[in-house]
Structure formats: structure tokens, C-alpha cells
Fold this sequence. Notes:
elongated, alpha/beta, 2 domains
Amino acid sequence: MTDQLEDTTPQTWVAIDIAKRSHVVLVEFSHGGRRHYRLRRQLEEVDQFVSFLHAQDQPVRIGFEPTSNYHRTLAFRLAQEGFELRLISTVASARYREAMFNSWDKNDPKDAAVILALLKQGLTQFYYDPLVAGVHDLQEISKTYHQIVLSRTRIQHSLLTHFLPLYFPEMDRYWHTTRADWFIRFLLRFPIPASIQSLAQDAFVQDGLEQRVPASGARRHPLS
């Protein structure tokens, strides 16, 4: 949930638009001036950036919008340096950009300005680093399993809505949890009706039984 925190303490605001090769940084100082530049994902430039932030007279508050895992290394370094970090919701950023610019068009400098505006208004989330919290491996395993489930579901829907209606329309009623594994193996062995017609009836029945009960006797993955 996004928190709205009012803070009028003079400070240096730092908005970072995360990208794959280089980040766009927008800094607003307590006197109102701004600095806008690119930060490449290289150790030397990150060291210079950290030194620049430490040199500020006012407290530094940093906000960024997560992008894949490209923000993780920079955020970890900044947190270790003792800076206050805030996470900007992707949904909040998109909605605010539409309201501010009345356009769907986006670019890195514009995104950094949106992040800065949300940061200054306190429309942010706390940044939670799973590596520091000790749950990094568990989170990555969970995310990987989530992607596997999504991929399996997409394949299933593709089969049921695109492949079967063309080649085996009568087989949709046999798609059940108890038969899904066998059914996938059957489709791998007989992808089109012609592959079935190439066999005699007895050979087809025997082949189908072998697909239903793997030779090893162990349960196989439906896509193996």
C-alpha cells in the first residue's frame, strides 16, 4: 500500500528512473535547483554518485521505480551507505504521468520527473530488501515457480483453444486433472490425425497404453 507522508524538512530529493544499462537521475536540492544526468551501471560511476550524495548538506531521500531486478544492486549499495530509500509504485507512476502530462507518451527524463513529484508528495512505499532480510533465496524460488505455473497455464490454454479445435475437437472432454499427464504424452506422440492413421488399430492401442504408463513406472512431468 502506498503511504502518504508529509515532510517539510529541508532535504535533497533524488529520483532515479531505473533502466537496463544506465539510470536517469534527477536531483532537486533544498534551495530549489536541479541536476539531471545519467548514471551508468558501472562501479566507478556508482562510487562517484555515492560520494556526491554524501557531500550534500541536507538529508538525502531517494525514490525509484522498480524495473525487473535492475534496481536491486544500486538500492542495496545505497541502503548500505545509510541513505533513506523509497519505492515508487509502478501503477501510481503510470497514473500520475497520465494526469500530469495528459499523454501516454513516456521517456526517461519524464519518468524521473514523475518519480520526483511522487517522492516529494510522500506517495511512496517502503523499500524492502530481501537479501538484507534473509529471504532472498525463498523469494527467487517463489518467483520462479510463479513463472513456471504461468507458462504451463498458457500452454494449456493454447492447446484447448487453438490446437484441439482444429485436430482433435472431440478430445476436449477428456482434459481432466487425472488424465492431463497422459494426454500431453499422447499429443507429443500423435500430434496430428495422420500420425494415428499411420498405425494399425492394435499397434495404436498398444502405443497409447505405453504413453499412459511410462516404462520407468515413475510419474513423469506432463511436458517431459
